[in-house]
From TrEMBL, chains A, B:
It is an enzyme of class 4 (lyase). It catalyses: 7-phospho-2-dehydro-3-deoxy-D-arabino-heptonate = 3-dehydroquinate + phosphate. Catalyzes the conversion of 3-deoxy-D-arabino-heptulosonate 7-phosphate (DAHP) to dehydroquinate (DHQ). Zn(2+) binds at residues 181, 244, 261. Keywords: Amino-acid biosynthesis, Aromatic amino acid biosynthesis, Cobalt, Cytoplasm, Lyase, Metal-binding, NAD, Nucleotide-binding, Zinc. The gene is aroB. PANTHER family: 3-DEHYDROQUINATE SYNTHASE, 3-DEHYDROQUINATE SYNTHASE, CHLOROPLASTIC. This is 3-dehydroquinate synthase. Residues 178-322 form the 3-dehydroquinate synthase C-terminal domain. It comes from Litorivicinus lipolyticus. NAD(+) binds at residues 102-106, 126-127, 139, 148. SUPFAM superfamilies: Dehydroquinate synthase-like.
Length: 358, 358
């Protein structure tokens, strides 16, 4: 049940260790630094920080804990982290350890990226979504009032520690949201993995330890391979945004208080695949398989009630994936792979939005 | 009088073009992007932005101008730049062009580094100091209330355009401050360049165009070579901080309202060399040569009146070059080179501070 994934990025390479109980013991081996800041939120911090700190007797250890939730993903919260580090005179050789989900990881990574132009950064992701997605690839960010993740940096961690036992306490809805990203890797390219997921979705939803570890390993490995190829998202890495353009529109429309990110991506993947089918690029059967998998993962497959095609167009206009005024979408292809394209019939998009918003 | 320096950093390589009149014509060749933000300050902007913008008819051009001076080097000013870019829906393919001295360059570079995780960045440095120092090497930053340049990123520009004609309007004090960094390259390692400077200091102070272009070229080339070797300052690059630990202490003591950065570095170089001589690592003759060169450059060679050894110790305690509680200093060696060392007699430091603060 333990595995290791190597993210090959030259001098910025690092490993992802995956094992149950990984943070219960022997943590000092991963954190030899003498100045350590543990960053977490009000949900996760109380569960793990005491146990983590108890293993770090060799170091000066600080803690910073913020209110759980996307609303905390703000620059002024990162500023508070910097001020704490400055007040305690932490050097650039210190390490910031993110203990939590994607919000904690993104913010802690950004804080580390900019503190004295780059302090150490270690991730301990505690949600399924963070373990398979935001912990791989070095994307760090905070939100800007006018757009999600608009201020950030590409900054690689020194290491990522995935303790699958931290998932035991994850609420069902969060579990499903993470499963959406796992399913994305099935949809994105690997027919083997798509078939494996279809056979193992029941075990995954029952949180079978062996199946879960394997799903995390394959997802991390697929993402690591793509990121190693295209660290700064100038090309192929954009494939990982499958479902994200539609998904971000939903999240923005609901002001990030409605569907969870993974849930919105689930709907977005259905919409992107529907568009591919409408364009004749993908087979209707693939749409059916995707919808069935997402339903088995207890995920939504339709936009929230009341959201209109005009709402989508509005919110997609501000999306980062807009290149020189052209909307570029990640669209599945029948081979089980996908393309990034702005070269599609706009009427097919309009029809897809109309079909989806019912 | 025109030259080009290549900064070899793999896929982040760029060139520095040095020529008189470089920004008067043909600027679109360097700035083909379709979204351009010109950033400058209240001193420099009025001199150049109209002429620059007139050459960029192919692009959407925005401007952002802030109050000149170190006091503007704050995160909230960078936030205002981000908000302007967001309000105008500039994509991550946009380019931010810094037109001005080191403050403009550092802040614009940091804004570019973090906007959508990395927009384009081009430097048009208009002070001697920026042309020979802050335009090379990718250090970007803003100040934190508790320390200078504490929040930032390593982020390389796409290109640097050094128009030596922009120096014509530079006040004498700013000229000398830039000359301090030029002299630093003489002190740092190249005996040839040290000798060249001794023979050409009168021409440089008279702003002889040929001598000035050569001084800029050699300084940029030396810095480029060191940075190519050690982009993220894990080793040899720290040599470039010669005089900076003492210099920063002076700037902090005067709350950045006293000596200019270059002036403080001039004093710092004298103090570092004095310490080397006290340790027996450098010959007294080298201290004399350095002091003579700085005086010819109309630069201070002593700390400001009233500043005490205790003031230095206090401010050096928070310096970034403090490594695990040990003060590491760049100290000249008799060969005309220098070392980075924490392994010196603290009493020699105390004596140097006492000798310097008189």
């Amino acid at each position: 049940m333990s595995a290791q994934v190597n993210v090959a990025l030259g001098e910025r390479s690092y490993t992802i260790d995956i094992a149950p109980g990984l943070i219960r013991a022997d943590l000092a081996r991963y954190l030899p630094q003498s100045e350590i800041l543990l960053v977490s939120d009000s949900n996760v911090g109380p569960l793990y920080l005491d146990a983590i700190q108890a293993q770090l007797g060799h170091a000066r250890v600080l803690r910073y804990q913020f209110e759980a939730g996307e609303a905390s993903k703000r620059l002024d919260v990162v500023e508070a982290i910097w001020s704490l580090l400055m007040a305690e005179r932490f050097s650039r050789k210190c390490v910031l350890v993110a203990v939590g989900g994607g919000v904690v990881g993104d913010m802690t990574g950004f804080a580390a990226a900019c503190y004295q132009r780059g302090a150490g950064f270690v991730q301990i992701p505690t949600t399924l979504l963070a373990q398979v997605d935001s912990s791989v690839g070095g994307k760090t960010a905070v939100n800007h009032p006018q757009g999600k993740n608009m201020i950030g940096a590409f900054y690689q961690p020194l290491s990522v520690l995935v303790d699958t036992e931290t998932l035991d306490s994850l609420p069902a809805r969060q579990w499903s949201a993470g499963m959406a990203e796992v399913i994305k890797y099935g949809a994105l390219g690997s027919l083997d993995f798509l078939g494996w997921l279809e056979h193992n979705m029941a075990a995954l939803m029952a949180r079978d330890a062996v199946a879960v570890a394997e799903a995390i390993r394959v997802s991390c490995q697929m993402k690591a391979d793509i990121v190693a190829d295209d660290e700064r998202e100038t090309g192929r890495r954009a494939l990982l945004n499958l479902g994200h353009t539609f998904g971000h529109a939903i999240e923005a429309h609901e002001q990030y208080r409605g569907l969870l990110h993974g849930e919105a991506v689930a709907v977005g993947m259905v919409m992107a695949t529907r568009l591919s089918v409408a364009l004749g690029w993908d087979a209707p059967d693939n749409l059916d398989r995707l919808v069935a998998l997402l339903r088995a993962g207890e995920l939504p497959v339709e936009p929230p009630p009341g959201m209109t095609p005009a709402d989508f167009m509005h919110h997609m206009g501000l999306d980062k994936k807009v290149d020189a005024g052209q909307l570029r979408l990640v669209l599945p292809k029948p081979t089980g792979s996908a393309v990034i394209s702005a070269d599609f019939d706009p009427q097919a998009l309009a029809r897809t939005l109309a079909d989806s918003c019912r």
